[in-house]
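Figure-free illustration: sequence to structure, shown twice.
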Amino acid sequence: MNSILRKSVLGIAGLTVAGGLAAGPLNHTDSTPTTRDTAVTTTQAATLDTATLIPHGVQGTQSHIDLTDEQTANVKAIIAATKKAGMDERAAVVSIATALQESKLENLGHLGDRNDHDSQGLFQQRPSSGWGTVEQITDPEYSTTAFLKGLKQVDGWRDMPLTKAAQTVQVSAYPDHYAQWEQQAADLVAQHWNS
């Protein structure tokens, strides 16, 4: 009960779907816009560079949240699923930024009246829109693989700004909101890609 109550207090009300496959973004109040630079630590820079992770540069003010152990485990699951799908670090950045916007990297179940339609999981995918069963879309590996399958079908996704690539898959009512998570997503990929 405490977990459900905690998640419900995160400010999930007000979500809409603009005829899309997934719910609009979750607007938690725990994100703090920051002005972060694009540098990664020396250890991270040895394996992944900013040009690979953020080829178009970040767009707009960036947000950042401190992650719990559960959220960090979900980051690692997204990276593992990305590697298993044979996709690169940039795909992981797009995936993690999308999950940061949609669920703050929390694997959300159905939230009753506060739920946007039947959206669930890290990517707020909807069983009624063909993303899979509730059990499937609340599995981080499955939901990431489903997102990546959609991303692969977007012609030229690697050449698009992150928010456009994410929006083409998600069809969110808030298409520009993915951009605010690009720096943190890149930092997380740099930190965990080779771990």
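We now fold a second protein in the same way, so the two outputs can be compared directly.
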Amino acid sequence: MRPLEPADAASIRALAGDFDVARMTGMLPHPYSERDALAWVDRAGQGEEGVVFAVARDGALIGCSGYMPMDAEHAEVGYWIGKPFWGEGFATEAVRAVVAHAFDAHGFAYVKAGHFVDNPRSQRVLGKLGFSPDGEEMRDCAARGEPVQCLTYRLDRARAAGALRQP
């Protein structure tokens, strides 16, 4: 995990611009240009996107993870990993780190996360980290251009203390 840099825009466009990645997020449009990516990196750098980190492998960006403070008590966690890196544990590692950062840096009582119903990979990531089901709701998906059913989860600080330890 590291801060985003303007030089990451090309990698973000290439990885997040893949429809299979974008369709599993709420905010990523499709198609996704390098100009879009650069504008997003700029907004993230100014704090307008919450707290955002580059997920890097050997220094190269392979995804992003972060959280948006919702109030003094909690934040919403979000993440995506580029398709060439799916199934290698990077999402679990990134979410573990970003959740620990959210609790340590902001003192939140809990964090929330969600995934679209057709994304079992994210369900496994959240389950491995101790998140508990919290509900269902419809959420907009920019890439699909329509609302999609989303399953939501919650992780309380006390439960996180044990669940976030490295295996």
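Summary for the second example: The mean pLDDT is 95.
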